[in-house]
Write a structure and sequence with these properties.
This protein has 252 residues and is an alpha/beta fold. The chain contains 9 helices and 9 strands. A hairpin with a 2-residue loop joins strand 8 and strand 9.
């Protein structure tokens, strides 16, 4: 369980981002933190990763107040420096005294990128670079994997690959995004932020398919599968194209 208790945060000589924010997240889930630009999504991720300190409140993971949280940056190139993918992924376990070969192989396996081990990270596609930065985080054996805008700059095939790989990760994953379609398909639960703070949290379908919850009013689009389903009176809304096609094929 990740417990964010009564968090407050304000930048020095800058705006207050959070006042008395409390959120509880289940361990082992993929959690999407949703919100328009400027609602504090990345700030919350940085607080969770311990890169900045709250002005009030506390964050605990499984009862620990100093959890191991690995953060993959929004721009993959910011996290790359080695001459091979294998060396990149080996950095954290090497410096933390962990079993290097085992941790590297496990991270590459979880993201299904073993075939990239000898490649130069800078020669990879943006989607592949992103998977390498996530593997590098995983190799450090964190309690929580934190992903900052992982969908940024990816086309549909890249999004599908990323989502499928995220679901393979054997850790709690917290990702921030404004992509409600991606969250609908791949997140187990969501946290929705607005300028006013926490709007909603809970299972993805219960929150994003609630007709009384106006996502557009806080600058977020309703997931397209939900719109599609509402227009046709379909319940539950599909999470994949194949589910939608199956429904259409079954129509009289």
């Amino acid at each position: 369980m990740i417990e964010i208790r009564n968090i407050g945060f304000e930048f020095e000589d800058g705006p207050t981002v959070f006042e008395d924010l409390s959120v509880s997240l289940e361990s082992g889930q993929t959690v999407a933190v949703l919100g328009a630009n400027g609602t504090g999504k990345t700030t919350l991720l940085r607080l969770l990763a311990g890169l900045i300190e709250p002005t009030s409140g506390e964050i605990r993971v499984s009862g620990e107040d100093d959890p191991a949280v690995g953060l993959a940056p929004e721009t993959p190139a910011d996290g790359l420096f080695a001459q091979s993918v294998e060396s990149e992924v080996a950095f954290f376990p090497t410096n933390r005294g962990l079993s290097v070969d085992e941790r590297v192989q496990d991270a590459l396996d979880q993201l299904n990128i073993e075939h990239l081990a000898e490649r130069d990270p800078y020669s990879l596609s943006e989607g592949e670079k992103r998977l390498v930065t996530i593997a590098a985080v995983l190799s450090g054996n964190p309690d929580v994997v934190a992903l900052d805008e992982p969908t940024s700059g990816l086309d549909m095939s890249g999004l599908d690959r990323l989502g499928d790989r995220i679901k393979r990760i054997k850790r709690t994953v917290v990702l921030v995004t404004h992509d409600t379609d991606f969250a609908w398909r791949y997140a187990d639960s969501v946290v929705v932020l607005s300028d006013a703070g926490l709007e909603r949290q809970g299972p993805t379908e219960a929150v994003l398919n609630d007709p009384e919850f106006g996502l557009e009013a806080i600058g977020l689009p309703t997931p397209r599968p939900v719109v599609w389903a509402r227009e046709r009176g379909v319940e539950p809304a599909p999470t994949t194209v194949s589910e939608a096609v199956s429904f259409l094929e079954d129509e009289p």
